[in-house]
Amino acid sequence: MNGEFPSDRFLDRLADFCLRARAFELDAGARSAAGKVVLDSLGVVLGALDHRATRSARRFAARFGVERGARLWGSGERVNAEHAALLNGAPLRAYDYNDYYFGRLGGAHPSDILTGVLAVAEAEGAPGREAVRALCLGYELVVGLSDYIDPERGGWDYPALTTLGGVAAAGALLELDREQFRHAFSIAVNAHYPSNEVESSEPDAHGELTMWKRFNGSDGVRQAVQACYLASAGVEGVVRPFEGRHGFLAKLQVTADEAMAAQRHLDGIAGFGAIARGSFKRWPVGSRGQSAIQSALRARAALSAQGRDAAAIRKVEVRADPGVYEHLYAIRSDPLQPRTREAADHSLPYIVAAALAQGRIGPDSFEAPVREAPAVRRLLDADMEIVRAPSASPSNLLAEVVLEDDAGRRYAGGCEPAPGSAGTDMPLEELIEKFRENVGDRLQGGADALIACVESLDASADVRALVTATLVH
């Protein structure tokens, strides 16, 4: 007997938005921003192919190979699309090096959805322009909803929002209709509430943060891809996945006013602008360490300009925004003696000391050989003072490093946002430099060939050439 089904207005708004966005123009600004996201993400992945989480992902892929599907970036194992969406996320998040967005309430790493976009596009033979459109669409949800929903309030992690962007992106590539979109969103959110226990900071058996943190974001994307394929085959989700008594909004403790504001936001979107609102990381540490690294490198350059090297440093003073001071110093158990990689890249004193000693920061800067290097240890054991600024900058992400040499001369590195962070643009030239640092000479066709594939992605017949260009020797 047919009856009237209960409504879920939030679910309806999401599906309606995805259909309405098909009419959005893919303008030059959106294409340029998408190109930056793709280039940055692939560079980060190729720089993390030796990470233990990435090696585990390849071992998993070897057990589930298929003839038709999508490939792992860099290594080329072919798996089904949902596995590719999951496994390519391991190197993307290995060193906390991909983009991020801090919204008014929540935050995310929106480029996580790229794993699902390229997986579905490759599996389905979709043209590059549609992959770019799907990526831009997904960003609208991940970035936009971060201003209205805070997953941490209810004990959940940011992939709760990433999943929504993944459904929008994968569903666009699969050309879902309104009812299929509704069921895809329903299946995905009902199946994926990622616990914020992944951010507990409790060390695992290796003394590091849980390896699952490297998969957590892309697991939300995997759920999204699976949900879209299920919905396209006629599988139906729960009736009220968002507004039901045990639904998504209740689990995340979203208030009625916040839910309504989010819906009004969706109704007001008229184009692809969110993809240009994210921030990039110039160096492989959290967003709170970027300004400190820039300042340390600038102070070191000023020292070098006087013909002195790091051995001449006798005192280091770091003046940090309260958010930087608390997160990278005050709450750390022993920031001057980091015993693991995770402890090192979350220690403000260590980040500064490594930058001063090496004159650079890369993924290797936090491994044992550098942590134990005499030049780094000397700076950490010397007169290093970490000072909490009396008030925060607008971003609460800034720090300044001031050096004093053995002759009493002082060298200040300035207190400014690093490229790509705290609302500062990441110039394409700087992004390409970061890309080349990550890629090195690993690529079969060379870095220039992959850069060219990214630049021409929106004009390509499909994305397979792009994925092929990521393969390493």
UniProtKB/TrEMBL annotation:
The MmgE/PrpD C-terminal domain is annotated at: 283-456
Does the keyword field hold Lyase? yes
Give one Pfam hit by family name: MmgE_PrpD_N
User: EC annotation?
Assistant: 4.2.1.79
The domain of life is Bacteria
Please verify whether the record's keywords include Lyase.
Answer: yes
Q: Which residues form a coiled coil?
A: none
Cite a single GO MF annotation.
2-methylcitrate dehydratase activity
* MmgE/PrpD N-terminal domain segment(s): 13-252
* InterPro entries per the UniProt record, alphabetical: MmgE/PrpD_sf (IPR036148), MmgE/PrpD_sf_1 (IPR042183), MmgE/PrpD_sf_2 (IPR042188), MmgE_PrpD (IPR005656), MmgE_PrpD_C (IPR045337), MmgE_PrpD_N (IPR045336)
Write out the entry's keywords from A to Z.
Lyase
SUPFAM superfamilies per the UniProt record, alphabetical: 2-methylcitrate dehydratase PrpD
Q: Which family does it belong to?
A: Belongs to the PrpD family.
* Name used for this protein in its record: 2-methylcitrate dehydratase
Species of the source: Pigmentiphaga humi
Q: Which lineage ranks, top first, belong to the organism behind this chain?
A: Bacteria, Pseudomonadati, Pseudomonadota, Betaproteobacteria, Burkholderiales
